[in-house]
Write a structure and sequence with these properties.
heterodimer, A: mainly alpha, 2 helices, B: alpha/beta, two-stranded parallel ribbon, 16 helices, UROD/MetE-like_sf (chain B), Methanogen_methyltrans (chain B), Uroporphyrinogen_deCOase (chain B), Uroporphyrinogen decarboxylase (URO-D) (chain B), uroporphyrinogen decarboxylase activity (chain B)
Chain lengths: 57, 395
Amino acid sequence: MENHHLKTGRTPGVFLPWDEERKRIPQITGDETIVREVWENTDRLAWTFVWHILVSF
Amino acid sequence: MTTEELYQSRLKRYVTAMRNGKPDMIPIRPFVAEFASQYAGYTAQQATHDYRYAVKAYLKCAHDFDWDAIPANMIYCWTGLVQAIGLTYYGIPGIDLPPQVGFQYKEPPEEKAFMPPEDYDLLIADPTGYLFNIWLPQVSSEIQRPGQPISERHNLALLKGGMAMTEYFNVLGNLAQSLQTECGTVSAICGILKAPLDILADKLRGYYGLANDLCYQPKKVLEACEAMMPHLLQVALDSADPKKQVPIGFWMHRSCVPLISHDHFQNIFWPTLKPIIEEIWKHGNQVLFYAEGNWDHHLETFRELPAGSIIYHVDRGDIFLAHQIFGDKFCLSGGIPNDLFHREPEEVKAYCKKVIDGVAQDGGYIMDAGAIIQNDARVDCIQALTEFTREYGQY
């Protein structure tokens, strides 16, 4: 079984944390706050999807 | 009275009762499910698999019956989404079931549980990762685990599933809005909560698997519940009514005596649920305890919760006992046995009178059946519940 995708400490509402994603981006030429906020908002949609499959469907 | 004035009067009535107060009359809030589609002339398949029929059915019911609030929608599982993702635990009307039969959950045999007993540590370490990478591929006929070959159907299942969920949640929001503006009817609940231990049984280990785990590895069960707590809380808060008027629906399944032991309830179920309810209440949202089955053994425990934090719904429990224990703290709803809806309207009226006389004299009661009302209920019996409560339920 492939389990290397599991990570400890993933908090509610977060799938791929911004801190990890930030390391993948060599340079942000504009406002990092915007990039971070939008990343976190779309990431939250994925978290919402999987938890609602469990709880609602 | 305009539709908006009607809505505001119903909202005030409903909210006053939920705060354990005494409104102008007893609010009527029937949790109609496949009754709605049957009444509107649609099959269970139509309403379940094509939500447009469900929307029409709920609007027709809200228009035709003098109900203060109804859920939008109680045929809550859109099986089009289920099919898109390939979820294997549903019986879908028109595919797996006859078109007139409501959707069903299929629980696998113990040896084929969606989560094997040795996976507790993985779930505990990373609940979100476990659900996405291991559980979802296990319950879906289409989605693959990381490391397995990716197919077009895998990609489509995730793409269609995500898009479908967004679409469906928008539909539910629009239905709630239409109930208000077209019918003056309140959308009865907003948001969802399930208890960690119930979720573990329902979707992961199955009831038999969980019963074994409670005996042989109870510490792991507790740790798994604790790991899921903050996520289930977040789901509830994210989906709650931002105006904090209508409650979060909390669906109570199989974590009561005698389905689990008193000790397991006290040491696992309750310590991993109570903090969630308290936190939701700190945010100003009430929770509707929809106590499916009979949870009478636990009423004194539920009484530990802050006054007004919950509405307690009675299915097969003793509503008079619930009133005795909760009367000064929580609003009650339900308590009308669903099997009465197969009998004569006069029997329905007589039972409604008994409940109103016994628990509703000082307010704090909402008229409803014990369980969701499905397509076996007679229309004249539901009309009897509605008309009698309107007439006799005036304060």
